[in-house]
Amino acid sequence: MRRLLQLFILFKEYVVLTVLVLCSFLFMAFSKTSEIQPLRAITTLIVGSLQSTGSWLPNPFAISRENNALRDRNILLTSELASLRKAKGENAELRNMLGLKLQPGWKVIAADIVGKTTIGDRNMLTLSLGEANGIERGMPVITDGGLVGRVFATSNGFAIAEGLFNPSLRIAVKMTRTRVDGMLAWEGGDELVVRNIPKALDVQVGDLVVTSEYSTLFPSDVPVGSVVRIEPEPNSLFRKVYLVPVAHPLKVEHCFVVLKDPKIEHEKVLLQTKVSEELNKPVKKVGKP
Amino acid sequence: MILQVVVGNFVSIVGATPDLVLIYLIWVVLRRGQLHAELVGFVLGLFLDVLSSGTPGAHALSYTIVGFLLGYFFNEDQIEQRLRNWPFLLFVFVGSVVNNLIYYFLFTQGTGINFIDYATMRGGLVTIYTTIVAVVPMFYQTRRPLY
Mapping DSSP to helix (H, G, I), strand (E, B) and coil, where does residue A274 land? Predict the structure, then answer.
């Protein structure tokens, strides 16, 4: 025992390193489980409180960025408003003619962004609302412009949302003009990318990209970004479509959390379909062999 | 740690923030040695992992290894000289390179991001920025009386 203790003291740095590395790998292995959620709730509360305390401090860079973005947006919206007014009338008339029902509105709740954090290239936003306000993990975060990200950790009074610039996020999207579907990802930098778009399909610079009906994480038709460049993938029939997000996480100051969880709705519908299929199955007759 | 979380975003340039946790870790390496650095690196890394939406354990692993590797250069007789002069910046630079290589390797796994490109571009920017910011604590050390 004494010899063992002496050995430990002699090689303590190596022993500690081995234990800590093993612990790190164990954490990585259990990263998908919900075991770390209570820890995240505590850190969310601490960070939210800290950032909320310091949120009165003005950030001149962020204000300047936001002002520029708002000015650009104002000009764009003014020009769009006129055409939209006309389109609204036409749309209502056409809907009446077709007998279509309006898509039910998503229930949203407004939230202030009390802090922004960048850890290891992951942009995160601390929201002023938490579980007490009905915020849950996985809920989409949007602005009037479009999609910002989704909530990944909550405490009673705060929530932390991850932005679109996140390597683990995959979103089913479509081009509004041509209804071309694709899978959105982030490969670094300030742009998002939609991969595996066949070269034969019509995609142009300036096309608006929105969330698709295939997405189980986000409501459909929420603007995500606009196409800025298209690059062919070497030695393949596909090309990559790069887009800039309409709501940049670093420029956002206020946001909305979509309270309706589309995934739950999706799973509910699937479950209902399964139940009705089971009920409609013909009953097997039990007869004599 | 608090500075990294609260102030980090205020000083972000092109989306890159200085790694204040790493600067503190290097200070621990030079002041306390290998064992302390390993433990401090693991705890701070784990806190960052829990806070971020990334893989839990990635920061903890990279900071622990940085603490272990740079801990070899701990010299009790040269603590003040190293903290007050350019070796501190050199330690921060090397520590940042090692940390970025390990972290970005884990970060880019299973994504379409090219590790080499990302570690070079992004990691390079973070390393340079962190090294420049490390001048502040170095000067602070310089102005403190030795005894």
Answer: helix
Residue A188 and residue B117 in contact, taking contact as beta carbons nearer than 8 Å: yes
Q: Do A124 and B46 touch (CB under 8 A)?
A: no
**Cβ of B5 and A117 within 8 Å?**
yes
- DSSP sequence for B67-131: HHHHHTT--GGGHHHHHHSHHHHHHHHHHHHHHHHHHHHHHHTTSS--HHHHIIIIIHHHHHHHH
User: Within a 10 A sphere around the Cβ of B113, how many other Cβ atoms?
Assistant: 20
Nearest chain A residue to B125, by CA: A121
Portion 48-67 of B in contact with A at CB < 8 A: 48-61, 64-65
**Tokens describing residue B10:** 């205020």
Chosen from B4, B9, B103, B121 to mutate, greatest number of chain A CBs within 10 A = B9
Asked if the interface predicted TM-score (ipTM) of this complex is over 0.85, the answer is: no
Question: What values do phi and psi take at A52, rounded to 5?
Answer: -65, -40
Residue ranges of domains in chain B = 18-143
By Cβ distance, the residue of A28, A57, A165 closest to B55 is A28
Binning chain A into helix, strand and coil, the percentages to the nearest 5 are 35, 25, 35
- The structural domains of chain A, ordered by start, are 60-166+252-263 (2.40.10.340), 171-245 (2.40.10.350)
Q: Residue A188 is encoded by which pair of tokens?
A: 């670094």
Within 10 angstroms of residue A85's Cβ, the number of other Cβ atoms is 9
Indicate the pTM of the whole model: 0.62
Residue B17, phi-psi category: left (phi > 0), alpha (psi -120 to 50), beta (remainder) = beta
B32-89 pLDDT, tens digit each: 888 889 999 999 988 888 777 667 788 899 999 999 998 888 888 877 877 788 888 9
